[in-house]
Amino acid sequence: MVKSVSERTPKARVVRLGGREIIVAEGQHLGFWADISHRCMTASWPSFIAGAALVFVVFNAIFAGFYWIADQPISNVPGGAYIDYLYFSIETLSTAGYGDMHPQTHYGHFIAATELFTGIFSMSLMTGLIFARFSRPNARLLFADNPVISSHEGKPTLMVRFVNERHNIIGNAAAKLWLMRNEVSVEGGTSRRFYELPLARSEHPALALSWTLYHVIDEQSPLYGLDADDFAAADVSLVVVVSGYDVVAAQTIHARKSYDYPAVRFGQRYADILDRTEDGRLRIDYGRFHETLEG
């Protein structure tokens, strides 16, 4: 017995949250074309280009077939070969129109007009998608591979370091650090809870170089008294969210980085990457950016 569309089991959607894959929205009926613009915007550039090329080939193959099944709808097509109709279809769909081949019947003119409209529409749509992908603001922030927990200013502190790779000014930069962990309720049920970790400094007036976030682990901190084993037992994840105003792009940009508990290094600190050259200029050593040291 064939199931109806509404009875078929839909494919579960997979998203990444806090550095791990979580299966969500199981049982949700969401077709491929339901949010195609979002898929086009979030696909990688190789996938986007490959998809656009595939659509281009399929459209031309279909219209070439319409020309091919008719009785010489296009002039100057020797022998009525399919490949020649495919070339004519490409000229028409792309609105190039070299002129050596042209419709010579009402059927040919009708198919060519339909294809021309499709070409104009698809080219406009593709132009808009490419422009949106190129003009979309993005932050070039490089985050350290590992958060560290060690003593800072005499207090146990969680630290996360990142740097502005563009070295332009990100004005009014703001950062938030979130903790996610599993907790067992009084009834014995397990749920995923999240907490915002207070930072010693959550705003930066002009982020151009590096910035280290500090969360002091005191009695009020959700991390107070936890060690590496406790992190693993609670399946701890950390999420850093940074936003600010890019003065070059004149747009607000956002960046996000997730860490799972194995990435957190206890009893270590970041290697110093800032020093000065002999002529007094500030220098950043990116070769040591991800390096951590004991202490």
UniProtKB/TrEMBL annotation:
One of its GO terms (biological process) is potassium ion import across plasma membrane. It is a multi-pass membrane protein. Residues 56-134 form the Potassium channel domain. The keyword Transmembrane helix applies. GO terms for cellular component: monoatomic ion channel complex; plasma membrane. The chain crosses the membrane at residues 48-70, 110-132. Its main location: membrane. This is Inward rectifier potassium channel.
